[in-house]
Amino acid sequence: MIYRLRLFSGASLAAILFASAATASAQDVTIVQPGAVGQTPRTLSEDEATRLARNAYSPADVAFMQGMIVHHQQAVDMAALVGDRTNTEEIMAVAGRIDASQEDEIAFMRGWLSDRSEPVEMAGMGHAAHSGMEGMATPEQMEALAAARGTNFDRLFLELMVRHHQGAVTMVEELHKQRGTAADPVMYEFTSEVVNDQNAEIERMNAFLASLSDDPRATLRAGIFDAEEAISNLRHVAFLRKPAGFFDPENPAGLRPEIPADDKAEDAQADEHAGHANHADHAEMPSAAIRDPEVEEEERRYAQRGGMLSFSNTDLAFAGDLMVAGNYHGFNAYRLGEDGVPRLVSSVVCPGGQGDVSIAGDLLIMSVEETRGRTDCGLEGVTDRVSEDRFRGLRIFDISDITRPVQVGQVQTCRGSHTHSIVTQTDDSLIVYNSGTGSVRETDELEICIGDVPGDDRTALFRIDVVEIPLADPSLARIVSSPAVFADPETGRLAGLWQGGDHGDNTQDTRRTDQCHDITVFPSLNLAAGACSGNGIIFDISDPLNPVRKDEVVDPGFAYWHSATFNNTGDIVLFTDEWGGGGRPRCQATDPREWGANAFYAIEDGQLEYRGTFKLPAPQGDTENCVAHNGSIIPVPGRNIFVQAWYQGGVSVIDFTDPANPFEIAYFDRGPVDADQLVTAGYWSAYWYNGRIYATEIARGIDVFALEPSEHLSAAEIAAAEAASYQGDVFNPQTQYPVTFSQETLNAVEDSRVGG
Fold first, then answer.
1. 580 contacts 536 by C-beta, under 8 angstroms
2. What is the extent of the structural domain holding 380?
3. Which of 142, 158, 183 is at the close of a domain?
4. Which residues pair with 510 in a beta bridge?
5. Which of 28, 538, 549, 664 is most exposed, with the fewest beta carbons within 10 Å of its own?
6. In the chain, count of helices (H) and strands (E)?
């Protein structure tokens, strides 16, 4: 039976509701505002009561404008110093652009505030008090700038002005993060153009500041295979391009596609209409904040996002005359011949990302982290949220026939495998530490995996995986323990170390410690060093299945603790900071010298003690991703020498015998892959093995170098490094063994140091 209820007759529901609303509106109701505790309520008019809702700007908008006036004024003051202190054309051009834009923008901001009956100056804040704003030069820095002349003035002016411009960008970004700010279309347009203009000026100033450097690496010509090169105290032995199947023949550099001219015009037209929709005209906008359409047409524009790192070369491992180069697409195997020159013997396609490799006898272990990896090495990937075909973890290959490797084992892990470390090798098994940095996979896909569930201590976060691989049957490899190495020893709280965030003013915003990126083990010392996102850590690995944390440190200059390397005696640890994640230009002339660098820590009574910092000294351009990355010890008796990859910053050899005063003794660098756009390229790893430096170049291929005698390194010391003996004649990136030298070699080195 169907019932119908007739609610109203003779009038529509809409009419009745309208009448009710009209009646309510006509009621004489007093609107009051209670005030603070104890205050008498006051009566508000309807206009006063709704004023907040209709407010087109916020107090934060007002504070921003007031502060930015002072911020801009300091830039004008700095520009006013130029005329009497330098005749450099580029510096005078910067000052001219500042005079043309900043004064105009100051007038706009004053007018914006006055039109809204807001004070132009922030209450209680004089000019000097604003020196704490982002990027503002201190009075002492302004005095130093006024006292400088010539090239010294040029350098200091650019350094201060770049930081100043970066500060303005940060101020806008912080404003836009706040709820309800920049709702006024005119203000939003203005602040957005401030970011665009300041960033464009930063690029110009950084480029010119780099040109003031006398380092030959500073301004190298770009090119995928014809880039300009600079080399010092090294011999370039060989360069091998990536083999077929490991690059896109139509786009070997992995460049983002350029937006066709027609699309640019359409975008420009759309932007113009969008602007008119936001406000009727540009009368209130400062002229400097309006783009010149002729300049816009000349700019080359590219797709905003590139593809995956599908064919990127990654890490290296060595055994005897075998070298294996990992790749996001699989791996390539080489035999090392005369002078250490590699010869390709096999290419193995097995996509899954990361691709870090280690060798143990006839087994090769590979790290796989991406969600597209398949158990069968298939090329089609995995797109389903949950799939039994997905593989993330450690692949195990039998390489007894290196020309036809066979996958013989797999260990599925909750966060994949970013890196791994072979801890021990017996006649029966391998013990491997696995470090996963990816998201925790679905429990429906792997039942042992629990994400960040409050109160659930089974979470896969805050742990490492300890894996056992039976040598007789690697298919039985499995996780045997997942120690919570970051737990607070007193409370047992899993998140017991760095919680994420910055360390105070002018410090890095550092990642939370819920994973290790690299764990480097030194088995003969029962010691491991972990670069663990927010902390540097050392572990006692006397019981390999249950590593015990001995000490941990934070560093205000580190954004992401990436890798760790012991010196040959195991009493100093070199940690690297991967500021920017490896895909950003972090070695520009005005980048902080202690960010994206190496930090050296001595181990004293089981504790880590800071000693010093080193960063690549050569300024790089804005199309060169550059930051500290993977390297290894060069075994010179009695000295601490390290070779390191800096992505598109090249390869650098560093002496840290005195860790408080490290310095560079050799280098090689190429110009950027492309002059117009930033692509992820450059050296992933640079390792010393049997007398040569082998470096995997992400986009181009593999380079081989030999050390040359110099004032920093004698021929006898180089010969000693070439003659050093490794345990088992094997090199895996995250497993260190002490090297040994013959007495004859040691005598020759000693004689060379005393002039014998």
1. no
2. 313-499+512-754
3. 183
4. 501
5. 28
6. 11, 32
